[in-house]
Amino acid sequence: MQRINFLEMHDADYLKGIAKELQDQVHSVLYDFDYDIVKETIKEDSAEVIINFKSKDIYDSLQKAQKEATKKTKALFKKNPNYASSKVHKEIMNIIYSSIKDIHKVKEYQIPIHLIKKDDQWIVADDNHELESALLENATELIEIMNQ
């Protein structure tokens, strides 16, 4: 699988109370991808490349984890109404992270990527919204689940 450098984990990115190894595994599921070039169209200093983009499909696991986390949270508060919200947050994150760390289901779709030639090198142009969306889709789904 591939990963883009700006999506790497740094010390400040780790959440306290959740094992770093688990967070690294989840980070890989969220951001690693693979691709195959389907078609290239080159016109002087610009090009369009159609890729078959493949990444992990976390949606179903997130839905199940959310239900499990809701049950766990209700049980914790029923047992102790003064249960600390920081502890609840850690419990929820551990449940969600544990549910997606070992996902093998893959989603794939074709994405056009616009390239420009600069100093004899092909670079990805700034106007690649479909690529950006694909790279961040899993993280967006995780954030949406956390905000429900």
Q: Keywords, please?
A:
alpha+beta; 4 helices; elongated; single chain; 148 residues
Describe this structure in words.
It is built from four helices and four strands. Strands 1-2-3-4 form a four-stranded antiparallel beta sheet. Helix 2 packs antiparallel against helix 3 and helix 2 runs parallel beside helix 4. It is elongated and about 70 Å long.
In short, what is this structure?
This protein has 148 residues and is an alpha+beta fold. 45% of the residues lie in helices and 26% in strands.
Structural class, from helix and strand content?
alpha+beta
Helix content: 40-55%
* Number of helical segments with 4 or more residues: 4
Strand content: 25-35%
Rg is 19 Å
For the biggest sheet, the summary is: 4 strands, antiparallel
Q: Within the largest sheet, what's the order of strands?
A: 1-2-3-4
Compute the number of strand runs.
4
Span between N and C termini? 30 Å
The H-and-E topology, N to C, reads as HEEHHEEH
Oligomer: single chain
The residue ranges in which pLDDT falls below 50 over 5 or more consecutive positions are none
Spatial shape:
elongated
- Mean pLDDT, as a whole number? 89
